[in-house]
Amino acid sequence: MTEGKRGGIHGGHRQRMRERLKTSGVSSFADHELLEMLLYNIFPRKDTNETAHKILDEFGGSLELLLNADPADLERRCGLNGNAAVLFSIVAELGKRSVYGKFKEKMLIDSSEIAGNYVKFLLSHEKRECFYAICLDAKSRLISPVLISMGTVNETHVYIRSIVEAAVKFNASSIIVAHNHPGGSLVPSSEDVSTTANIVKAMNMIDVYVADHIIVCGNEYLSMRDMDII
Q: Which among 128, 91, 144 has a CA at the least distance from the CA of 216?
């Protein structure tokens, strides 16, 4: 009897939330309310409001950190079952692909600020060091980002031949190379500097301009072009 009553209360609340969504739109909801409604799909009878608050608090109130956490980390830290953890990962990936779709439409990348923000989008949540070559056309418009390598938390091997092949494949007039420091700082290492110099030499041989080398750490970026390293 008690369980039936509790289910009725939750059912009425959920219906009110759905009606509010229809009349006021998704943007009218607080972060924890959106999480609460997302969890309806996993917990058909459970009060998900408290669960949503708990999950969000575990990640310091940051949806960004929550949605980019590993499913296993979500299970361990928040006590979620595998289905809920996977659902969050899928939602995060769909959002990322939606934003990427906008970037793909001949986005103009003609400043270190635009390049830095784009590379942050690509790399800020990667937990391993990754290296990208971002191919641009003659008007500095985005053609395609190309993942060159993926390594460990603090290193990745860069194959310059692969960068050359990517530039040739996409008929790039210029490229921006980029990588992240997931476990370190923005300061370029000596290897970063020497690798960049070697990439510039290789690109000069095929008449492709290296516009910048962007390093990302967390939500910050550094332009080696702005630092006069290139």
A: 128
Per-position DSSP letters for 55-111, written without gaps between them: HHHHTTT-HHHHHTS-HHHHHHHH---HHHHHHHHHHHHHHHHHHHHHHHTT-B--S
Q: Which two tokens stand for residue 184?
A: 């370190």
Q: By three-state DSSP, how is residue 175 classified?
A: strand
Amino acid at 46: K
* 167-206 pLDDT tens trace: 999 999 999 999 999 877 889 999 999 999 999 999 999 9
CA dihedral 88, 92, 94, 97 (to 10 degrees): -160
Strand partners, 108: 141
Could you tell me the two tokens for 47? 């009060």
Mean pLDDT, the chain, rounded, equals 85
Top CATH class of 106-223 equals alpha beta
Strands (E), the chain: 130-136, 142-150, 174-180, 209-217, 220-223
Q: Domain extents for the chain?
A: 2-99, 106-223
